[in-house]
Design brief:
CATH superfamily of the largest domain: Ribonuclease H-like superfamily/Ribonuclease H
Number of domains: 4
Strand order of the largest sheet: 1-4-3-2-5-6
Radius of gyration: 27 Å
Shape: globular
DNA sequence: TACGGTAGCTCG
DNA sequence: GTACGAGCTACCGTAC
């Protein structure tokens, strides 16, 4: 049963029912104008539902907006259990300046427990069905929550979600706690919910701060965006027309381009998988010395940048871009960014992202984090030693493979070694190494040579060899393998390359998320906010006069996070106070 | 006309 | 035997 509250006194009094609870269940219903385009600043919260094991109250925030004053200390003290709390926290923060930090998100929990988090659904109804086999009705979720009088059905629906949370929470906690966890969860979240799994504790801690990132948005120079768009647009149109006039070819018609290049220009092109002639950029690159090819590639590049500019323009609102993040976007725990994707902004456009007047950006990234993780993960002493001596790892690998002096390694040799080093993380084969060298550096090496480099690499870094062999054996035997990040994120793989890559990539995401949580907590009073996260990079927006202070906090956060998981390999990161995202280097 | 899958690009 | 992860657009074939 539930109680619908529209009276302030009753509302205040009702809170005493939760006196003894460490945590409460929470949900909100919001009057949203357009569900495809939710406006977290202008759409209004109608209901806040709060419950414990016995009671459920539905607070009508249209009737009692003053109640938020009482709710703020209450919700910021108690633990909060909810489903997809990023949504609720964004509204609580924007509507009432309420920001709970001790939370347990049942959606995140479900994702962490899933063997295939991308392919399974994690809506409240899906999770409820998976864990309790109860079907629930979500038809009222998008009903009109701005009606003067809410219907009985709406209220019943609003209360039901709390009831579902009550049922699934203990099941989720128990399952999370039964996962192996090499690190012990500590702190408020662990204490409040009895959550012992460290990965889950980090993810839960991250939920409020990811909510803030989305709510605050990434600052962009609107005027510059408009200007650059217009400029590039007219240049592109001019170049495109000029090209068609000159050569009679549409640079985007792959068929015609391939015919033109092979028949008219007499050049050779590789085949695509389906057997037709390939005219993708990489196939044309070898002929970049020819002016017509160079122009063609330039036009394609212009078009791509123009498309991206159009996309940014579309999402820009008053000098900011409010993107979305999927907290667990990949099985490795990496986030995904969408609407728009702020994690694949072309380098050439990063200068558009600019701190507003009186503000600065702090742009920070971990240096070669994945190689450092790999060295730690397999305890590869030769590589650990190189990192300890602060060597340029690619140059170092080249010098060992080629048996040359560290100083004598050429640029090309270093590039080659870089490919091998990266190949290590991805589980490269000699064949792909050969392909890579050819495609990316135009270096023609034979399969034999690639095999020799490959073998030499594993002679030098012995523990990597043993690691790879162990994985291969296990996979042959069982077809499947469970691997863990250094924090303990669990992933089941069936491909060799995944078994090699996942624990490394996942440890990187563990570190970044921990750093973001530390920063969020340390910088709370500074009014400084993370505005973007890109796998190994953190971008903070801060007032100019305290930028140095905030930079120190960020530095500490990144260091602490890294050192929790990397005990043998030193952490390294770059950090700069700038106006533009691309200002560093 | 709407949808699903793929290729090819961007980033890490 | 397979170099890892993501999102977005354009494009193409298929279903209605």
């Amino acid at each position: 049963m539930f109680e619908y509250i529209t009276n302030l006194e009753k509302a205040i009094e009702s809170l005493s029912a939760f006196e003894k609870d460490k945590f409460v269940y929470l949900d909100t219903e919001v009057a949203v104008k357009d569900f495809d385009n939710i406006d977290f600043y202008n759409d209004r919260v109608r209901l806040i539902q709060i419950g414990n094991s016995e009671k459920i109250f539905l607070y009508d925030m249209f009737s009692i907006p003053e109640f938020s004053k009482y709710l703020k200390p209450f919700l910021e003290e108690k633990g909060i259990i909810g489903h997809n709390l990023k949504f609720d926290i964004k509204f609580l923060k924007s509507n009432f300046n309420i920001f709970p930090e001790v939370v347990f998100d049942t959606m995140i929990a479900s994702q962490l427990l899933s063997e295939n988090p991308q392919k399974e659904r994690h809506s409240l109804s899906a999770v409820s069905y998976r864990f309790t086999e109860n079907m629930i009705e979500k038809a009222y979720q998008k009903s009109s929550w701005d009606l003067k009088n809410l219907s009985k059905e709406q209220l019943k629906y609003a209360a039901e979600d709390i009831d579902v949370l009550r049922k699934i929470f203990p099941l989720l906690i128990e399952k999370l706690n039964s996962l192996p966890s090499p690190h012990k969860a500590t702190g408020q979240i662990h204490k409040t919910f009895g959550l012992n799994n460290a990965v889950a504790a980090v993810e839960m801690g991250f939920v409020p701060f990811l909510s803030l990132i989305e709510l605050i948005g990434m600052p962009i120079d609107k005027e510059k965006l408009e200007f650059v768009y217009k400029e590039k647009s007219s240049k592109y149109q001019k170049d495109y027309i000029e090209f068609v006039r000159k050569y009679g070819i549409d640079p985007f018609s792959s068929q015609k381009v391939a015919y033109w290049i092979t028949s008219k220009l007499g050049l050779k092109l590789p085949k695509t998988q389906k057997g037709s002639l390939s005219s993708q950029d990489s196939a044309l690159k070898p002929y970049i010395d020819r002016p017509e090819i160079k122009t063609l590639l330039e036009i394609r590049k212009e078009k791509k940048l123009l498309d991206k500019l159009r996309e940014l323009k579309e999402y820009e609102k008053k000098g900011r871009i409010y993107g979305e993040f999927k907290q667990i976007g990949a099985p490795t725990g990496r986030m995904a960014s969408l609407k728009p994707n702020l994690q694949n902004i072309p380098r050439e456009l990063k200068f558009l992202f600019k701190a507003p007047e009186g503000k600065k950006l702090i742009v920070a990234d971990y240096s070669q984090i994945e190689l450092r993780i790999a060295a730690e993960y397999v305890n590869e002493e030769t590589m650990i030693k190189a990192f300890k001596e602060d060597k340029d790892l690619h140059r170092y690998t080249a010098s060992l493979i080629l048996d040359k002096d560290y100083e004598a390694v050429t640029k090309e040799e270093r590039q080659m070694a870089k490919a091998i080093n990266f190949g290590l993380i991805y589980g490269i084969s000699p064949r792909s190494l050969m392909q890579y060298a050819k495609n990316n550096y135009g270096i023609d090496i034979t399969l034999k040579e690639a095999e020799r480099f490959h073998a030499r690499f594993f002679d030098i870094y012995e523990n990597f060899k043993q690691w790879h062999e162990k994985i291969k054996k296990e996979l042959e035997k069982h077809r499947k393998l469970t691997v863990f990040s250094l924090l303990g994120r669990k992933m089941t793989v069936s491909r060799f390359t995944d078994a090699v890559n996942y624990p490394i990539q996942a440890t990187g995401s563990d570190i970044l998320k921990m750093a973001a949580v530390f920063f969020g907590r340390f910088a709370k009073e500074k009014n400084a906010f993370i505005v973007n996260l890109v796998h190994d990079e953190i971008i903070v927006e801060t007032k100019e006069d305290i930028a140095e202070e905030v930079k120190e906090i960020l530095s500490k956060s990144m260091k602490n996070a890294g050192e929790i998981l990397l005990k043998k390999v030193p952490i390294k990161y770059n950090m700069q106070i700038v106006d533009y995202w691309d200002e560093k280097e």
